[in-house]
Amino acid sequence: MRKAHLSLTPEQTDLVHWTASLGAITAEALALRMDITPASARGRLSAAVRRGLLARRRLLVDAPTLYTITRAGLRACGAYGIDPCRLSAGGAHHAIVCAEVAAGLERCYPDHRLAGERELRRDERDLGRPLASASLASDRLHYPDLVLWPGATGKLPVAIEVELTIKAPRRLANICRAWARCPTVSGVLYLAPSHVERALERAIEKAHAQERVVVLPLEALPSRTRA
User: What residue numbers bound the domain in which 41 lies?
Assistant: First the structure.
């Protein structure tokens, strides 16, 4: 049966739009972002699922449930040009961590606006030019996982990369080199677990990107799952 037009409160609109921008979120990430309990966050997400705004998927055992936007949710919050996120078991862990990183960054930088890769791709496609992506030597664009936009106009954003696995050294160095010469961002912040940090630091040094690219441990950000 076709659903009637959905009227959302500002809080519901923000929740659904945040999900659309990131692709997928968790109750734990929402709890951290809003400074509420995980149980309260799950209640809000479950209400959005019942209204057809979000879909719920549990892809990994002993891991948080992921919530993604539906087409009805996209229409309701006005998030045009973004498709519902298709999750796989292989990408679930990265999506979980990205949502938590996004929430932690918003808590640390309340005067900035955070956007996900899906929103960035949409905006660059609409404008026909890079906004916060890096150009690789192969003429392909490399997109960050998240973008932290400053509140003040005229200032460049910070690209955020969530690196959970060790990439091939040459590929990683090429990406760092692309970020080092990227004119559309003020800098790049890599967040990584300890076993990935060393590989990143070697790639940054090889690319001579120390002035533009920084690595921090994931533990540097607030976390609901570590609380």
Answer: 10-85
